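Bug report

Summary: structure tokens for Lipoprotein differ between web form and batch submission.
Environment: batch mode, default settings.
Steps: 1) Submit the sequence below via batch. 2) Compare with the web form result.

Sequence submitted:
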Amino acid sequence: MAPRVPSLRDMERISGWGRAAGVLATGLLATGAWACDTCRPRVEAGIYNEHFLGRLALTLMPLLVVLWLVVLIVWSPWSDARPRASSRRSFTQEESS
């Protein structure tokens, strides 16, 4: 007996979380790009050339901008998330025992 092929109705029953888990698993299990032994040196030479540091900086720039915005939001004077000295409670020897 051959295995049953899933119908369209079966596919509609898969939840959004199931789809998200499937996409995540596919991304985590995917292999990296590769080149044959003949082409590999040329591929690496094309990546690690004199423009590598500039391209690396451009790649990391969005991450640095988002990190800067998070720090700005957390440590801003109008944010309640900012730790303040007045909000910290100091314990004396009598309170801690």
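Above is the batch result. After comparison, the two runs are identical; trailing whitespace caused the diff. The chain is about 55% helix and 0% strand. Helices lie at 8-12, 16-29, 40-47, 52-74, 93-96.
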